[in-house]
Amino acid sequence: MRKNKLFIIATVCLIVLLNIITVFSINLPNQTNEFYVADFANILSQDTKKFIINTNLNYEKTKEMPQIVVVTVKSLEGHDTLDYSVKLFEKWKIGNKKYDNGILVLLAPNERKIRVEVGYGLEGALPDGKVGEILDYAKGDLSNANYDEGIRKIFYLLAQNVNKEYGYEDSNIFEKYNNIYSINTSQNDDIGLIPKIIIVFFVFFIFWADHRFAQGFFTGMILRSFLRGGHYKGGPGGSSGKGGSSGGGGAGRDF
Fold this sequence. Notes:
Blueprint: H1 2-22, E1 37-39, H2 46-59, E2 67-72, H3 81-92, E3 102-108, E4 113-118, H4 128-137, H5 139-143, H6 147-166, H7 170-174, H8 193-213, H9 217-227, E5 249-254
Helix pairs in contact: 1-8, 1-9, 2-6, 4-6
């Protein structure tokens, strides 16, 4: 009887976890020809778009070839920003596959939400706490519907940290846009130690119960869901670096 109860509990937990991961199908947009900026909400100026594209084109000349892609959408269509951004990151294959150094900035003005996803390779340069501080720095602009200025600030500060990580000269990457913003960010993480411990124990229990009572059936389903993903290619303005793993972290804000 006790084993049956544990099996039922483990099954319910695994189903919930699987639903969180897979959710329901999201109608994600395709890449634009420019790749590095996709202003579907039509809120960015031509100068900001040019700044984003030119910065990324300068990154293409480097060994690591990081990518910072900015996407604005009219609506998330009821989806969570975290799930939407992760799946879009994976669909567009952002970042250099070798270094897993892609960054996605997703802005949804109708829902008043913004999210930054960071690839594993840049987790050290841009931990969750630092990304959160960058978003907070631009929150006033976003709250006042000055989306163009807010995105420019966020992009610049993210790129500035990428430059520092790889030893790039800001003047070479930003050119005329160098030294336009400054912020003192810390290395603090958004998630405290106790919540992390609880999450680890919860996940450990789920997978232990799965292997104990279901021979790893649900674990296999979850792993297969992670391994799925499309292969897309951008246009002449830029192209996917075939990275596509956003598990490094990130942060989101309402405004």
